[in-house]
Amino acid sequence: MFRRKSSHTNQADDSASRDAKVSELRVALGPLSGRRLKFCTDVCLRRYLEARNWNLDKAKKMLEETLKRRSNYKPEEIRWHEVAHESETGKVFKANFRDRLGRPVLIMRPGKQNTSSPEGNIRHLVYLMENAILNLPEGQEQMSWLIDFHGWSLNTNIPIRTAREIIYILQNHYPERLAIVALYSPPRFFEAFWKVVKYFIDAKTFEKIKFVYPNNKDSVKLMKSSFNTENLPSEFGGKATLNYDHEEFSRMMSQEDVKTAKFWGFDDDGNCKAKVTPGPVRVASSAS
């Protein structure tokens, strides 16, 4: 008689197989140094494999494109004083609370759009995402986004081209970083904008985007399961008051810049001091 493998055994086999994929991807990437070495942790490699359904070649291509972009764009070098003007109205900022799993929360209020520079808006968002990632608790790789549409209109909306670029950056260079995106009570005329941008969103990201309405039982249940209502601002159905003090937030982010520099190992000249580590050596297994 044949016995079925237990679910525990299957899970162990699957975990071992994925660990092996991570090792294969590291070998395929070759020797890494400096910031690339710092960036390419095993957890990072796992996220890229997950984003490409564990296809090694596709994950390698995706990660190499990210490394090339980071080398040119240098997101870890962006400092608060460079993007602070984008945040004067509090259109996007890191919340002073976390979701129920301890993940950072970014609050977005498109109705408070105050600039017209696509690059400025993108650079500001990238800065805040990088900071949120730096502040992830151990064992967590994702963040939550809350979007408040109060005051939003087609006049304050970002251009379709900018929205498409943000979606591209998020999906291709920050894979598996989103836990949930709550679009809270969007107005009816948002549908026209949504009908266009949704075609730029891949299936995995699409599943994480939730339309939330205060009078909908499922929406209320979703928000309560994801956030502590005592900390959640009333704009999102909670009991807390949402206050954004730009000067106070600026002081906090300036301190965060010091943490960022320390994490990336910058020396006095702004150079990364990480050492070169040779790529793993592939060891041929003996025939059995």
UniProtKB/TrEMBL annotation:
Bilayer-crossing regions: none
Region: Disordered, residue numbers: 1-20
Record-linked CDD domains: SEC14
PROSITE patterns the record matches: CRAL_TRIO
Domain of life of the source: Eukaryota
Span of domain CRAL-TRIO: 80-244
SMART domains xref list: CRAL_TRIO_N, SEC14
Name of this protein: CRAL-TRIO domain-containing protein
Organism: Solanum stoloniferum
